[in-house]
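PT: before anyone asks, these are the final sequences, not the draft ones from last week. 850 residues across everything. Please model them as a single complex and drop the result in this thread when it's through.
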Amino acid sequence: MAIKSTALVALVSILISLPTLVVLGSFFVPDYALWSHLLDTVFTRYVANSAVVAIEVAIGTFVMGVSSAWFIVNYQFPGRNIFAWALMLPLAFPGYIFAFFVQPLSAYLPFVPAREWVSFCLIMTLYPYVYLSARAAFIDQSVCALEAARTLGCNRRQAFLQVALPMARPSIVAGVTVATMESLADYGTAQYFGLETISTGVLRTWFGHYNLTAAAQLAATLVGAVLLLSALERSLRSKAKFHHASHRYQQMHLSWLSPSGRFGLTALMSFPVVVGFGLPSLWLIHQATGAENFGLNSQFFELAINSLGLAIIVALGLVPLAVMIAISRRDKPSRWSAALAALSRLGYATPGTVLAIGVLVPLVYIDRSLAEAGYTPLGLTTGFGGLIFAYFSRFYSVAANTVEAGLERIHRSMNETARTLGASSWRLISKVYFPLMRGSALAAVLMVFVDIMKELPATLVLRPFDFNTLAVRAFELASDERLAAAAAPALCIVLTGLIPVLYLSRQITRSRAGHGR
Amino acid sequence: MRLISLLLIALGTAAQADSVNVYSSRGESLIRPLFDQFTEQTGIDVKVLSADPGALLSRLRLEGSATPADVILTSDAGNLAAAKDANVLQAVDSDILESAIESSLQDKDNQWFGVSMRGRVVVAANRVDPSEDPASIMDLADDKYEGRICVRSSSNVYNQSMLAGIIINHGEQAAETWAQGIVKNFARIPEGNDRAQINAVAEGKCDFAMINTYYLGIMLSDPAQAPNAREVRVVFTDQASTGNHANVSGIAMTKHAKNKVAAQKLMEFMVSESAQTWYADDNHEYPITANAKTSALVKSWTPDDVKFDKAAVANLGAYNAASVKIFDRVGWP
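LR: through. Structure below.
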């Protein structure tokens, strides 16, 4: 049983990693002719721009995400209950649409270089990942730990820096990792501002130089860098474990600030919501008024159903899978499973179009082999198989980071106690893990859902004939410079994204351990 | 017996209507109305997968004989030339295509056919004296245009095709010197798309920009964008020599097409009067057949005797990689 489940987890991990492995495998294709040209000309710029943007996004999302989560969880100020969910809203905004909104503003600040605009767009649309995971962690934290810190003479700042922040570290790192990886894989925003990054360079090498091998090799350098970073992060993290020692929870005491402090917080919290969501939404609505019937027509229902259906199916399939893998890995840790874990996350840092090729190669190979052996091909690439495969590979990291961070907050002793008391694996999962992980699992479902609603490059290449999503439609119209017509589907992405954001936000608040039960 | 077989045929066609699968690098929402016309006329269903042409070409190559695609439609003939080189197309012998399309706008081996044309032109701000307009695209590299030119990123295929055209007409060395000159003359680091360049000219950030004509058509027919579009005039360059650079969109049949008859019908439909009129009126492009007329809007900026560089069209794809290398070397982002 144990061996079987370990083997199954290994198999699933390898399947999820397969597209990325195909991309990494391109290193071994002996076709390096273009590299001397790339190294002589653009490679340094690609690496420098990608690195700076990634670092700025890591710092920016950390500061915005963690500070807003901390204030929401610990302080009382006007509008707090609204900001608790409103801070997530920018997540529903696709980066490539946000860039369209920001670009005209850049005219007023001509001295700000393109790179900073790209970082700005990415931080504003990606910080909710950090906010979401940090908030879930802060909510889960035992008040006792914080109160003990206060009793021991820490002031609020010290309690935050020395107790709350280290305890929430796994979740925060998970959120920052997701945001940084997404910024590395970003194509649309950098492309729009004319910034040369590794990701835009990959497509330029592929479509401009007509060299898929060199493009995949370039993508592999990106994936390799992420692999190194995550190995580094893991080795740093493995030395420290943060569990809740106490199982006593009580209602969080919200701090009241002076009136100026309160309204100061309100103003501070308004910034990301207004700039990351309010203004661009108004701008989209304004654009939509330029189109006939606001650009709404009968196709919208179909597009929305397609997007929602795909996002729900994949999110509900992927998150339980990530939970099972995470639990199995925790129960039977090994060097191999750690390596597989790192590998299976790389899809998120792989530019979507390149990942699509990584999906096509094995699927086409299976179908062609079947045809050559005289069997009927399965048509793996013409249906939804390829698309769903790509989503699993790309967004596994999002789900895994979030549920594993949630899992790390559960003390091992609980696990051992339940086992000692004779609980079966299933009972352990349903009675111990599930209730404790509900918050982080829901956060994972939400993140994957919203990511799929917005996903563009892999969807473009892998979707079946005559199947379109809101993101595909919005992007096609926007890149055809029909912004008025693109506004309606873009608003639709944002609006459909709102439903789960609002619903799950409430669930996360309620799932706080020791809350109302 | 005959009755039964007739009945079977009737049932067969009823149950399994003809269809044709299209890989399209033109957006599905853009091209769908045209395909709907085709379905109405012929009863043949058109299924579309729209994506980046490079990605679609890679998909075709990977899929080989298993490809579901019968037809590939691209916004740039260079992509079709690349597809031909990749050996994923097949020749189509059609009198209709042959007679409707002039020989410079179709492959000499009948593997691809142009279906519509756009000009990549210079736009100048109306406030700039027309005597400053460049006669040749090569002039834009002159010092007198320093700090006055807006153009989009060189990752865009239209810029790559334009430089490929310059390589064909003037050689690789001259093309590199030209690209260097343009970089020196940038009013700003390339950002945004063609529409953004037109806006930048209208708003005084630069005096000249290089754009595709059909974007101007879109802007002029949109009340919100028209004011900016009216601030610029179109300059066709190289009228006394090679002609202005032309972008040709085209269509081809895949090597392993399963619905060849329907595919050919669709290809032939693309040069019909109704399709060409759609390209002209709805999409602000230049029709390439004699049976349709340039729209009044497009005519408003196009002289009757305008000359396009059609001779270069079939070879643009061959020089695409060379042009990207030049862009990389001169630092045109």
